[in-house]
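Exercise 7.
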Amino acid sequence: MDYQNILSEIKEDILYITINREHKLNALNKDTLAELAEAIRLATNNKVIRGVLITGAGEKAFVAGADISEFSNYGIAEGEELARVGQNTVFDAIERCTKPVIAAVNGFALGGGLELAMACHMRIASDNAKLGLPEVSLGLIPGYGGTQRLTQLVGKGKAIEMITTADMITASEAEKIGLVNYVVPQAELIAKAEEILSKIKLRAPLAITGAIKAINASLSHDVDGFDAEIKEFGKCFGTLDFKEGTTAFLEKRKPVFSGK
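Solution. The predicted structure, written as tokens, is:
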């Protein structure tokens, strides 16, 4: 697909996605969301891709929010549709992606930008990053899963504080409350994300997929997470990677996984 708002490149089995609207601080508009949805479908369905790294163009912003001009005149039904489509096609799709997805947060991650980062499986932040959900200052609330995922990550009290005050927090505070995994100097941001993905690439691909599914099930009201873990655990025994992993362990050598 010929993208206009994102950059997409596969290097060493990793899909790099860059929100490329630097002049708009990488704000999310409908076209950008549609392109993100397509890129995540590619990552999910392409067997070559082992992980995804999402970041923003430039040094000022990961994503500074949604493009407010697109929905400033919406009514109730249009607002609901905006949130529903965005959640289903992009944010939930990222969370359900069977490959690990890391957000490399460079600069501002506000509103829809923080919601995008939270939908990813892990978050690495540059030391100059600022994060927040300022929607109530516009007469809105987060609509792309922000109320749910922030609560899951930092707890109810902190989530209510951040959302109702609309305050931004620093990268170091985000790390302290568990909102991001690591904080690094901006020059080391992509390298840190690559370091984590490189470790994951050494592990069994089908086991990684099973682990992501089981962990996601722990947060679902419709699925018994323990039962999901049992089923994914059982599936592993039917893979060639299980045979390779256990054989390599017994033979005291490093395993070579095939993803089968």
